[in-house]
Amino acid sequence: MNNSSTQTITAYIGLGSNLASPVTQIKSARNAIAATAGIKELAFSSLYHSSPMGPQDQPDYVNAVMAIETGLSPTDLLHCLQRIEHAQGRIRRGERWGARTLDLDILVYGDQCIELPELTVPHSGVSERSFVLYPLYELAPQLIIPGQGNIADLIANCPLAGLKRLD
Fold it and tell me: Which of 39, 41, 90, 149 is an S-S bond match for 85, by CB 3.0 to 4.6 Å?
């Protein structure tokens, strides 16, 4: 297929880790995503330190957001991200909000609202999570999150909740 006819979408990926050297996990994931065929990195946020959601008997998280341009479908992108998670030691045990080496989420995929059994975009909870909104705002302060509104308005209603930018 001729690449010039391939439609590309700007998407935003949330990255999080709280096990096995989280900063290294995030940097490795960034490199792996950028090296994936059909994906071009547009921007990468600062790293942020956040308290865990759910069970508090786990280490704090390191989070970031990556802006990409991709010709991959949402499900193909999801499967690429899941392969990267697995390659970096992610084991899915079915627990919600548990500790993990790496968590990669499609936060926004163009202006699309997607409801599939394996994928919901915009990511559920994106509008209430400081560890997603603040790094996303850093990359795209004018972003309209489909079905949720302007990111600046969402930020105004989302306290930092202990979120700290790492230097």
Answer: 90
What is the domain partition of the chain in residue ranges?
A: 3-165
Q: Which residue among the candidates 30, 57, 93, 105 is catalytic per the annotation?
A: 105
**Tens of pLDDT, residues 150-166:** 999 999 999 998 899 99
For the question of residue 103 being annotated catalytic, the response is yes
Predicted TM-score of the model (pTM) = 0.91
CATH architecture of 3-165: 2-Layer Sandwich (3.30)
Catalytic residue among 30, 92, 100, 167: 100
Q: Is 60 a catalytic residue?
A: no
SS (H, E, C) 100-152: CCCEEEEEEECCCCEEECCEEECCCCHHHCHHHHHHHHHHCCCCEECCCEEHH
